[in-house]
Amino acid sequence: VPKAGACPVLPEALSLPVLHLGPPAGLGALQVIHRLPMPNLGDELHHSGWNACSSCFGDATKKRNRLILPSFVSSRIYVVDVGTDLRAPRLLKVVNSEDVFWKCNLGYPHTSHCLGSGEIMISTLGDPAGSGKGGFILLDGETFEIKGNWEKGDKIPPMGYDFWYQPRHNVLISTEWGIPKCLGYGFDPNDLKKGLYGRRLNVWDWTTHTYVQAIDVGEDAAPLEIRFLHNPDAAEGYVGCTISSAIHRFYKTEQGDWAAEKVIQVPSKKVEGWLLPEMPGFITDILISLDDRFLYFSNWLHGDIRQYDISDTRKPRLVGQVFVGGSIAKGGPVTVSRDEELRCQPEPFSIQGKRVPGGPQMIQLSLDGKRLYVTTSLYSAWDRQFYPDLIRDGSVMLQLDVDTERGGLAVNQRFLVDFGKEPDGPCLAHEIRYPGGDCTSDIWV
């Protein structure tokens, strides 16, 4: 889902491309076969979800035929018909931001998950004024009208972002990025000690919809993407913390509450020529393979994607790593003066003659676990600050080939979607979804 605003001299045309993602036979075999222009400017389409998923398994009346697109900045919610013609999605409905504001007293919607009831639930970062508020919007799964808030009671987390639920353990856990009205101005290091970024995993009682526990994962950790293991009996998973560049394993304790432990720490690099004297990896997306064997995540600033074997969930083991951009490549403005992991700065990343701007951001894994797709845009305000070339040249989508036996990642040099060549100007590509379900949205109940 490319986002608007990549080219300042062209209209902000939001679009939803449909890509043919079969393994390409050679260079140029991959192509965009359809584009759906969106009707408004400045929405910032960020994450998305399906109207029905594995949580509705067994209900023959439910079909995965609508894509739900919350707008991070405008607070609109788009419903796209992907069932009538899979190769040519069309806009079905627009839920106006005023309805989100007045019916829920929420704004800045982010993650959309379908529920076993057939309803759709969307997390938010804040209230209509842009202050932090970790609530949830509930949509009717047939009419897509707002039904109200999912959460009940007076206790509400101070921030929100992503979430995952696990009914077999009567739990939903949500995360916190930061205060939305501050995020829109880019990353200001002076905000780090002002409590403007999240530090908690927020635990909810799934049955009563009430907020019951906060798990502190560290000051200014900014926990973003959260994933339970796919096994519906599992009472554990992982969360990626952006600013602290750590992966925490969360789990259910013998006492019945929830806890977290840090299991991976990406060391910061001491640098010159950058915003701060030390550069964090900046973990922005994580996912778990459908067989719960591998954990993947992206370091948006350092520029690498990592694969960990999680057969022992408490001791992830690095088995694959590849650099596909980032801020520490040789020949750039940043000089690394101390690095706990690398002996030298990585080479600049190019593919099919194109020097790729930005760093690896959103990731999506094929259902067989053999192809990992990557895009390079985080959020236009932060893209503009950290990777101004993204605004000028547009982002890309790449494919990594995965060794599912021993572990290992390799860039597929035949695969490139260059969103800098879109007919209406450069675009910023973010999230990827599969019509048949994917590793980051399907929940088994």
Automatic annotation (TrEMBL):
GO terms under biological process: protein transport
Decide whether keyword Flavoprotein is in the record: no
* UniProt KW Nucleus keyword: yes
Query: From the Swiss-Prot or TrEMBL record, what is one GO molecular function term?
Result: selenium binding
E.C. designation(s): 1.8.3.4
As for subcellular location, the record says: Nucleus; Cytoplasm, Cytosol; Membrane
Membrane protein topology class:
Peripheral membrane protein
Pathway the protein takes part in? Organosulfur degradation
Reaction equations catalysed: methanethiol + O2 + H2O = hydrogen sulfide + formaldehyde + H2O2 + H(+)
Q: Which SUPFAM superfamilies match?
A: 3-carboxy-cis,cis-mucoante lactonizing enzyme (SSF75011)
Q: Which Pfam families match?
A: SBP56
Q: Which GO terms describe its cellular component?
A: cytosol; membrane; nucleus
Broad class of where this protein is predominantly found:
nucleus
As for family, the record states: Belongs to the selenium-binding protein family.
Please give the PANTHER family that the UniProt record associates with this protein.
Answer: METHANETHIOL OXIDASE
> What's its job?
Catalyzes the oxidation of methanethiol, an organosulfur compound known to be produced in substantial amounts by gut bacteria. Selenium-binding protein which may be involved in the sensing of reactive xenobiotics in the cytoplasm. May be involved in intra-Golgi protein transport.
| The protein's name | Methanethiol oxidase
Organism this protein belongs to: Falco tinnunculus
